[in-house]
Design a protein that fits this description.
Layout: E1 4-10, H1 18-30, E2 36-43, H2 50-59, E3 63-64, E4 68-71, H3 76-90
Parallel strand pairs: 1-2, 2-3, 2-4
The structure holds flavin mononucleotide (FMN).
Residues 10-14, 42-46, 72-73 line the site of flavin mononucleotide (FMN).
């Protein structure tokens, strides 16, 4: 069984949310192997921060499913897309 890691992040001051950043930094240092990652998140006016999480997954050489970012709070269709990717994670 491959353990899966899903990380969601709201953009704050053009950065990862501090608690998420702390977790991602710790995880990068710990460098667990053979996992599968999914990064998703929200932004208000400038997307892109979720790529920092995706980059860590790639640095750790994990399998990933496509990252996903939504403007403001994820709604109906977007929540479904996130669920689809989570299903991909556990397939
Ligand atoms: C203090 C604060 C700082 C924020 N900074 C950014 C930012 O730098 N870039 C951005 O795209 N969105 C920024 N946002 C917007 C949040 O990412 C957005 O509110 C969040 O994704 C959740 O969406 P919601 O407001 O619909 O709940 C900020 C929001 C707050 C409250």
């Amino acid at each position: 069984m491959t353990p899966n890691v899903c990380i969601g992040n709201p953009t704050l001051n053009n950065q990862l949310f501090p608690r998420v950043a702390g977790f991602v930094t710790y995880m990068k240092g710990l460098a667990p192997k053979n996992k599968k990652g999914f990064a998703f998140g929200s932004y208000g006016w400038k997307p892109g921060v979720v790529n920092q999480i995706q980059q860590v997954f790639e640095d750790l050489k994990w399998e990933t499913v496509a990252p996903f970012e939504e403007k403001y709070t994820p709604k109906g269709d977007t929540v479904e897309k996130i669920k689809e990717r989570v299903r991909e994670m556990i397939a």
